[in-house]
Description:
5-stranded parallel beta sheet; 2 domains; 9 helices; single chain; Rossmann fold; EC 1.1.1.79; D-isomer_DH_NAD-bd; 319 residues; 7-stranded parallel beta sheet
Amino acid sequence: MTEKTVLPGVLIASGNWAPEPWALPFTSEPDRPLAIWPDVPDRKAIHYVLAWRPPSEAFTNLPNLKAVFSLGAGVDHVVGNAALPDVPIVRVVDPDLTTRMTEWVTLQVLLHHRQHLAYARQQAAHQWRELRQPVANDVRVGIMGLGELGRDAAAVLARLGFQVAGWSRSAKSIPDIETFHGEDGLTAFLGRTDILVALVPLTADTRGILDASVFDRLARNGALGGAVLINGGRGGLQVEADILAALDDGRLIGASLDVFEPEPLGPDSPFWDHPRVVLTPHVAASSEASVLADSIHRQILDFEAGKPLANLVDVSRGY
């Protein structure tokens, strides 16, 4: 009698996200053990963990663990886990996630460029008054972070006619996009930026990077009459007290914020009712879990067929 082959097992530790959509692609493989945290009957069977804000216990006593797949665009929630074994960490990179982030960034840029907040206030007051609209080519957008998400957003905004530049910690080259890098390039990048879009990963180096010193260096002489902050990256990037102070004293004329720390945003936060703020509940790159799960499943199958894992995290850098 032929012994039944058991495939490497998968553990879904999806935090406050429903695990069922992430598990769905694996349910078609009856010979692959599938566990949903915290119910892990056989820890030796687990070779892969699909994780979003997992507890440390999810990584303990997994002697055959081969890789960890982050279920979101960021990986700080995994890299910072003290119990994480020395195994590859894989970022989720999928066209659906990238497109959705670019949609959100483009929407926010256009909301501020076309003065939507002012028109919304006029609508509430039953006022019919045309406001001046600068042309896109006179507006300078700066993308802080030139990974997969930043590059795609930069390309779309450039096609719409905006003057787009990008900044990253290390040098990067993108066709038709002016790029800056490192601390030496940050001041020049900020000084030519009317709308700052933050898409950098959250690391020890970038925590709190969106602070008063950054807002002080943003352009004041642009077509919008001031500077705008858009953060679709991580809440830990921003110093919220500094954002509020900059909004109140005019260093920022507007902000779109999708992320906060901690989340959810507290009901008493002044951001809720601030007239110059667009607030969304961490949905900028919100993708269908089933789509991303299929992508992870395909990569696992490729890995088991002998192909290398793609989109690996450099743990020393934190992204």
